[in-house]
What we know:
Elements: E1 12-13, H1 14-21, E2 26-28, E3 34-35, E4 37-39, E5 49-53, H2 65-70, E6 75-78, E7 87-89, H3 93-104, E8 113-118, H4 123-136, E9 141-144, E10 148-151, E11 154-157, H5 165-177, E12 182-186, H6 189-193, E13 202-207, H7 221-229, E14 237-243, H8 247-255, E15 260-264, E16 272-280, E17 283-289, E18 295-299, H9 305-319, H10 324-333, E19 342-343, E20 351-355, H11 360-372, E21 378-382, H12 393-403, E22 406-409, H13 419-433, E23 437-440, H14 444-454, E24 460-464, E25 471-474, E26 477-480, H15 483-496
Parallel strand pairs: 4-5, 5-6, 6-7, 8-12, 8-13, 9-12, 13-14, 14-15, 15-16, 20-24, 21-22, 21-24, 22-23
Antiparallel strand pairs: 1-3, 2-7, 9-10, 10-11, 16-17, 17-18, 19-20, 25-26
Bound molecules: ligand UAG.
Residues 40-43, 54, 56-59, 61, 64, 160-162, 164, 188, 190-191, 194 line the site of ligand UAG.
Amino acid sequence: MSVDCPRCTPPKLLREMVRRLGCSATLSGSGEAAVTGISQDSRLVRAGDVYAALPGRHRHGIEFAVEAAARGAVAMLSDRGSDILPTIVVDDPRRALGPLAAWVYGNPSEALDVYGVTGTNGKTSTAYLLDAGLRAAGVGTGMMTGIAVRGPNGSRTATRTTPEACELQQTLAAFAEHRIGAVAMEVSSHGLALHRIDGTSFRVGVFTNLARDHLDFHPDMDAYFAAKARLFEPGRCAAAAVGVDDEFGRRLAATVTVPRVTFSSRTTAADFSASAVHADEGGTSFTLHGAGAPKPVRLRLLGVHQVDNALAAIAALAVRGVDLDSAVAGIENLDTVPGRLEVVDAGQAFLAFVDYMHNTAGQRRLFPYLRSLTRGRVIAVVGATGERDPGKRVPLGATAARFADTVIVTDESPYSDDAQRLREDVARGARSGGDAEVLVVPDRAEAIVAAVTLASPGDVVVVAGRGHDRVQAYGPRRRVFDDRIALQEALQRLAAG
Ligand SMILES: CC(=O)N[C@H]1[C@@H](OP(=O)(O)OP(=O)(O)OC[C@H]2O[C@@H](n3ccc(=O)[nH]c3=O)[C@H](O)[C@@H]2O)O[C@H](CO)[C@@H](O)[C@@H]1O[C@H](C)C(=O)N[C@@H](C)C(=O)N[C@H](CCC(=O)O)C(=O)O
């Protein structure tokens, strides 16, 4: 299916937009304006755009109507009327926005094979593995993850796991215009609950797993699961690949109505499964079941959890009919996912990693692997991000202390929360969680230096929680801080004596 290119097809008229919204939408002002784009951020408005003035947590977008008009907006979409520009008023503009943005940009997802990956852990790695598999199978790809948006025009750092609706549709339109075949994208529960992905057609939805996270945003686990399950509603995704290693995945697999396959690294009762899993310092091996005869697979990615992610990608590609021999070769060749058990090597006599694990489910999957790499000690740098579910903090410390010999509690990004309180909660958990030595070093760079200074030959050091993140936030202040660079510098300083 071809996509309307806003530059070569006649512009859409505002009144058509109103008609699409149905009889509950009202328009003040003329409907004759030509609409060439749509934006929900006044700072990004371009001439010919509709500005979607949405209610936010801090401000209402209507406050920025003058700026949007000055930048050339031809109209607004909002839940409030305005006399600054012709305004379409609807009860829930956020809900209306995704499908409208898709329409404005020519429904680009229909021209693409969009793979949407949701779940608590493994979304980013699975998207990277899908991308690697698709490319090896000869498909041109774009990718949208919390790390970066990568497409025909290069790569840009992502500001969110799942972009806001307007940015998402603009990006998909650019991909479609460049005749990209497929897109691997992360779909966060925020993206689902806030309707960012409405208007996007997914060829395959992938569910990795679900564990406690984001309870600062969702009232409880059932609401968190319900948000994730939105991806798999008929009309939104055409097929599903569902991980069934937790109760939520099994619930989803039992209720989805679209064609689906299941995957599991723990049971052979799934459509795609793994046996003989072995993870060492150089990679991860397993035997793949479900794709014809049992097939040996050797991943370059580190850690048993990557078997789950590889199975997720393989199941999703299989359900879409991608040639698995080529795709699996691509999956095997992927050598790293930024900030996911990323090795930092300055020639030191111990292993050092940066990882994104920021919930206890992730810790329980990763720490045993780290433990298996050493007869010496595991030294973990751990913290808790602010403005998140406070109930996560003590368990994060406790689980780290259950597996590590030394836990160094430090700051992540406290945002508006009290940094000392965050550290105290994590440290309290760590002291209650096992026999680990617990140190508290508030400054993250100093905590990393402490970890490498304590390490002996053969030990394992892991700096956990932030992964690829390059910005540390204290209140409104932002400072550039990349764990990988800080670890590299600490190791170099250690080597220099
Ligand atoms: C909870 C949430 O999703 N919040 C989003 C929301 O922020 P907000 O409600 O505070 O917005 P606001 O500052 O009050 O502004 C209201 C409106 O005015 C607009 N505005 C504001 C200022 C201006 O100069 N001009 C302008 O037009 C804003 O675009 C917004 O539409 O609207 C903003 C703009 O659209 C988003 O940037 C912001 O996401 C913030 C950055 C965020 O942190 N979101 C997180 C919670 C998130 O979405 N995370 C998920 C999952 C992460 C994970 O997996 O761990 C993700 O997908 O990234």
